[in-house]
Structures are given as C-alpha cells and as structure tokens.
Amino acid sequence: MVFVQLLINGLIAGAIYALIASGFSLVYSTCKFINFAHGSVIAFSAYMLYFFFSMLGINFGFSVLFSIILASLLGYLMNVLIYRQFRKRKAGSSILLIASFALLILFESLLLMFFGADIRTIGYIKVVKGISLFGAVVTPLQLIIIFTAIITFFGLYFFMKKSKIGKAMRAVSDNKDVAEIVGISSERIYSWSFGLSSFIAGITGVLIGLEQNLEPVMGTAVIIKGFIAAIIGGIGNVYGAVIGGLLLGLTENFGVWYFPSGYKDAIAFVILFLFLIFRPNGILGIKKGGDKQ
Amino acid sequence: MIEAYLIHLLILIGIYFILAISLQVSLGFTGLLNLGHVAFYAIGAYTSALLILNGFPFWFSFLMAGVLAMIAGLILALPIRKLKGDYLALATMGFTYVVYAIIINWSELTNGPLGLPNINKPSLFGFSFASNLSFLILVVIITAITSFIVYKIVKSPFGKVLESIRDDELASQSLGKNTFKMKSFALAISAFFAGIAGSLYAHYVTYIDPTSFTIVQLIPVLAIIIIGGLASLKGTLAATVILVLIPELLRFIGLSSSIVGPARQIIYALILLLIMLYKPKGLYGKVELD
Amino acid sequence: MLKISNLKKFFGGVKAVNNCTFHVEKGKITALIGPNGSGKTTLFNLVFGVLKADSGKIIFDKNELRNLPIQKISNLGISRIFQQSRLFDNLTIKENMLLAFDNEDTKLFKNVFGFNKTTKEKENKIEEILKLVKMEEHKNKLAKNISYGQKRLVEIARSIIKPHKMLMLDEPVAGVTPSLRKELAKLLSKLRDEGETIFVIEHDMNFVLNIADSVVVLDEGKVIASGKPDIIKNNKRVLEAYLGD
What we know:
- The complex is a heterotrimer of chains A (about 290), B (about 290) and C (about 240).
- Chain A is an all-alpha fold.
- Helices cover about 75% and strands about 0% of the residues of chain A.
- In chain A, strand 1 (about 130-135) and strand 2 (about 135-140) form a beta hairpin.
- Chain B has one domain (about 1-215).
- Chain B contains 11 helices and 2 strands, in the order αααααββαααααα.
- In chain B, strand 1 and strand 2 form a beta hairpin.
- The longest helix of chain B is centred in the N-terminal third of the chain and has 28 residues, at about 1-30.
- Helices cover about 40% and strands about 25% of the residues of chain C.
- In chain C, the strands form 2 sheets. In chain C, strands 6-7-8-3-9-10 form a 6-stranded mixed beta sheet, with helices on both faces. Chain C has a 4-stranded antiparallel beta sheet with strand order 2-1-4-5, covered by helices on one side.
- In chain C, helix 3 (about 95-100) packs parallel to helix 6 and helix 5 packs across helix 6.
C-alpha cells in the first residue's frame, strides 16, 4: 500500500528531523540563540564514522563510540572556545547567530578540504531485502533509526524531568536571572546543554551517515531541516522539536506524492514561511498577545 | 600574464563591492538581518543569462536582472514584515534555499544542475566587451554608478530614516515614519544591486550553475561588511579589497586549487569570527550588531 | 482634545486597564498618576497604538485612534516620549531632531535627487528648540555619547519640534537632577501658556501638583479620581492607593 509506505518513510525521515531539531532546540532553550553549527557537529560525526570505520577499518562498535564522543567534544569546545567568548562581551543573539553561521561554513569547508567533494558512503549495513510490514517495506536500518530515536527521546525526557542538571536546565530556560539567584551557574548549564546537544548530534550523525551518502554540504542541509522542524514545534521547546520533526517528515513524504521529488526542499520552506508568518511560536510555543512592542 | 591576473582580481573586487554595499543598505543601514542576499544575486544572474541566451540585448538583460531581483525583494518584504532578528534571519536564509531549490529543480527554465553555458559577453551600442580588459572597464563604470547611487541614498535624509529604523524602529514609527514601507524600499534597493552584480557575474564567467548560488556564498559578503564596519561605505571598500586579495596569496604558497576553494571560505569564516570578537565595529564602522 | 471612554485591556487574567473614562483638555496640562503597576504606561500604549485595546473608545481631535498603526496616530498630531530613552544612538542630536521635523525624508526619489535639502530655516528652528533645553552645544554629538539626563532633554526637544497637537510624556523627568526638573517644569508650563496640550505621566508629586491643571488618578487599571490637583491631594482614596497595600 502506497499510503503505508509513505507513512513509514515519513516517520523515518521525521525521526531523523526530530533528532536534529531536539538537539538544536535544546541549545536554544537554554542559551537563547540559534546555533547553526549544530549541523556541523552532525556532519562531523558522520564523517568520523566514515574515517574510523571505512578508512581506518576500526571495529564498527568502537567507530560509532569514537564518533559520538568526538562530536560531543566538538560541540562542547565550540561553546567554551567561541560562544563563551562572545557572551563575555555581552553579545546579543544576532551576533551569536552570525558566529554560528561562520562556524557552520568553517567546518563545512574543513570537511571539504580533508575529505574532498566526492560523495562517500559508509557501507556497513548491507542493502538487504526489507521486512514486510502492513504492505510496506522496512529495512533493518530504518528500524534501527526509529528504535534509536525513540530511546534517545525517552532518555532526553527522563534526563530533563528527573535529573538535577535537567531541572537546572529548565530553570535557566525559563528565567536565567532567577535561576542564578538560586545558585545555578548559567555558564555551567550552557556547557551541559552543548555537551548533551552534541551528544545527540553525534548519534544523529552516525544514523544519517549510515542511511544517506556523505557530502561536505550535509551539515547545512541537515540544520536547515532542523530549524524548520524546531520552528514548527515551537523553537526552544524540545518536545515541540520532536513533534515538528515528525510532522515535517510526514508532510514532505506525502507532499512528494503530488509534487516532483526535487521540490521536497521547497515544501519544507513553504511550511517554514507559513509558520514564521502565522504562528512563529510554533505548535507548542506560547502565543504572545497582539503587541507591537 | 600578471596583467590578466590583475584584471581578473579587479573584476572580482568590483562585483563583490557591489554585492557588499547593496547588502549594507538593508543590513548595515536599516538593521535588517537579511541573509537572503544570495537569492537576489542568483535571480539577477539567471535572469540576465536567460534573456541574453534568448536573443535580448545586453542592456535589457542587465537591467531586467536588477528589476526582477528588486521585485523579488518587494515580494519577500511583505510576508516577513513582522519578523525581527533571529526569525528574520531564518526566513531570509530560507528564501535563499527556496530560490536555490527552484533553480536546481525547474530544469525546463534553468537547465537545473547542468547550468547555462555560452552566456554571451556584453555588447553595448555595437561595442563588444569581449576582452577581459574591456569587461573590466564595464565593471568599473557600473561599480562607480552603483556606488554613487548608494552613497546618495544613504547620505540623504532618507538614509537617516533607514538608520533610525535600525537604531529604534518603534521610535521611528512614533515620529510618523511608515517603517514597513521604508524596510521594503531598503530590501528592494539591496536586491536590485545584488541582481546587477549577478548579471555581471554571469556575463563574466559565461557559465552559471546552481552551485554558485548557495548560502555559502553569503559568507564572503557578510564578512566584508562586518569587517569593513556596518554602515561604513569606506570600510566596505577597504574590506572588499582585503578579502578578495588575501585568499589569492594562498595560490602563491603552492596549494592545489581543490584546497584553495575551501581554504578561502575558512579564512573568511575565521576573520569574521575574530573581528566580531575583538573589533566588533570593524575597520571603520561606528555601529555594532546588537 | 483626547477623550477616553470605557477603555479596556486585559492580559489574560490581569486587568491592566479596566473601563477607564476621562479626557484631556486642550491647552492644559493633564497629569496621569497612580502607584506602580496601575496601568499608566499601558494606557499610553493603548492611545498611541503600541497595544490594541480590547474595547472602548479613544477619540483624538475627532479621530478614533483604536486600530490605527502607530505612525498614523503620530501623524494625526501626537508627539510621544517613552519611559526609556529612545533616541537614535548612532545618529547625532541634530539628525535626531531633523527626523522629527517632517516626513519628507521618507520619499526616496525626492531625497536621492537632492530635493530635500536641510534648509537654513530648519537648522535655525532646531537650534531654537535645543536652546529651550540647553542642549544646542551638543547638536553634533552622537546620541549614544551623551548622558541619560541629556538624552531625556533631547527627547523632549525632539517631541516639541515634531509637528503636534498634543504632547504625551511618559515620566519625562525620571532620573533627572532636581535643578533640571525645575527647568523642565518651567518649560512645560511655558508651553502650556502658549497653548500646548500636554498629557504627562509622572511619579514626582511636587512636579505634578505644581504644574498640572488637571489630574487623573489610576489604581489597578481603574480611574479612582480626577480633577484639580488641590482636590486630588486630599482625596482619601488616592492617599490609600499610594500608601496602602
């Protein structure tokens, strides 16, 4: 059944977008700025998997581990070495946005320089005949993606709800000044946010690297879908990011039924514009009053 | 040999300068976080190329490049009018991608990823600007006219209204200024000259394809205006010269050309970061990003 | 000049402006006072179009202001200053003043072709008004380079030079030295004597009671008293509002 196939494809794409968007929204919720470089961390993770596994021949499990660890480190360092320096100088969110854009281009160019422009693939999970499910075909890789995404989201949920750091993150997200008064160090929370967000990015990069081809521009392509999903769900709202990601994945895949597949990206942008104009706070965001100020 | 190389550099400086000062109008002077500049550049390039490949004279193709880009700017201004700061950045960046997606997919019109080859060199009043030297002269003339117009605009009271919107839009409205109209004008002006730059680019390289019009192309222009200083025309000129020339030095160190490309972007990104950290007003600017 | 009838603005459960009715008379100074959070600035924002009223009427010089955009309201003849300083930081004092002069500067082609020159006449007028607040020496300084008190003075000057039928001043003397306050009180009285209509929010009681012709007192979004300053001074409810919980 075409419908079920589109549904499944939509859910897979949605799961990936949700992963991208949740990491991105996590940083936005605490640090209050748009971090385009999140895409770079994802691309970096994918390329590291390629480097360790396909180029160096290291055991797959270890390669995945190293990639995720390095990605987490990269994100953490970006915050400490770059963004923190800007915050010290009282930079506003616009400056941080441009800085993150510069970092995105920086890493994209570095990847281009070291790995070349050729498209690469990580051929770990062989293309096997997929399993039949309700009249549609699902490959083992797709199942792994959904499964990993679900575990990641649950893990994130429990972390944010129950752990001390998670609660502190929510406090900083709600009201940084009040949080500082009760003794929470916002810089420490920022470090945790970046670490956690990049950890998720690491996982995302590994999954994307296995599912799609690698090219240096993937960081940019990935973060664009990421911020669209985040805006749909309500930027800064991690649960919203998940919903937004799923909606985006489903809309794109069902939309491709009607439009030529090349216009998939254009669909995403139309959705972005519609939300930015009519509901900039997204689905789960709070609707502000009709103020002009 | 050296001559040809210098001519090439000067042409690049001219085209980048037009791109940069046009972005200054919407970003530096009006304060709009307009990351959609490359989209207008692309519209200009493709409009000009398609028109001339279909037999229209150069002067018409060239002007229409600016006009169509300007119309796109006016159309974009409407849906984004209530957006500010980050959201405006996202929407305008999104616009760059929409235009890119259209270019790469609407093959019937743009030939998609294959691009448009054999774009004619410009010819005006029977005089052909085929040689690089004559093309340079054309670029110089157009750059000079552009600079003059932009200078006139920003130094006039109209320019001050734009700056007032950047500094405090609410206060500007409370003085009775229709800020939506002003912002639309600013975007349209930026777009017009970006389109003109696109046309020059298309006729210079004679072959265009979508890869020259991605969001990455924004980094050099953004770097130029921030490093030169927002709202500083003088700074923009200095920064254009510096930023076009510095990566060229890489060639002399013997780097292969596949490295020079990404290396250029790396340099731009790094310099941009450093300047924003250590000299946020840039070389000559008096205005900082908020 | 300005007639407010049954004006309402609720923010969810908060009744910021709750059925207010009063008027601002032409050629007089009307002061809007009340404890913090009583809705004064919200009221100003409703009149000026920064906020949209839920219901009620705002009639200025025979025009209904509700639902009009800010710049239209401004061009109908209201000159407003805000609680925080809103000068154009990267422009000079003179340029700040020029922007207020008229709206010819919004005409693109007229300006680009040089048909909107800054005449000697304009310069003299600006000089004259800056002299009223003693800021004429600083006219070529960038607005971000002058002190807070000086900024407030320039804002007052700017609101005067802008063509207007009514001035709306939100705490014009907050943060300003006592001697300067006296000067400004004199200035406002002088303007009123010359026929200006002034609507002012102020916390400084002396300032208000000395120059205001009429006082409107707000508490928790409601008008609890209005009339001449002497009457208000001794009004029990007013005293309660200020001193009570």
